[in-house]
């Protein structure tokens, strides 16, 4: 009798991206090891690997502050999360610093489930 097949399950997550979509480091005027769009390309995954965001996505960076003032629809974080194949998102404590409209715009355009 052969040994049963081994099944390994993993999950990938991001947290506290704070509105950094691009790997721009304003202090050094160069790229940094950050930004949601940089992170999603670093994931080594297949279609069975869930990707989850732990919140704090829409507030904290200079870009996020500008987005909040201009109020584009959809919020730029929503297409980025969709592009990254996120299945689940949660709200972090800093997501409550923005008004309800900013949060609901991001959430309505995400093809994810919310915790």
Characterization of this structure:
The structure is a single chain. The protein has 115 residues and is of the alpha/beta class. It has one domain. 26% of the residues lie in helices and 12% in strands. The protein contains four helices and six strands, in the order βββαβααβαβ. Strands 1-4-5-6 form a four-stranded parallel β-sheet, with no helix packed on it. The radius of gyration is 16 Å and the shape is elongated. The mean pLDDT is 79.
Give the secondary structure arrangement, pairings included.
Layout: E1 12-14, E2 24-25, E3 30-31, H1 36-39, E4 51-53, H2 62-70, H3 77-83, E5 88-89, H4 100-109, E6 113-114
* Strand count: 6
Low-confidence stretches: none
Mean pLDDT: 79
Number of helices: 4
Main beta sheet, described?
A: 4 strands, parallel
- State the strand order across the main sheet: 1-4-5-6
Q: Which structural class do the helices and strands define?
A: alpha/beta
Order of helices and strands: EEEHEHHEHE
Tally of domains: 1
Give the N-terminus to C-terminus distance in angstroms: 43 Å
Share of helix among residues? 25-40%
Instruction: Tell me the fraction of residues in β-strands, as a range.
Output: 5-15%
Structural shape:
elongated
CA-based gyration radius: 16 Å
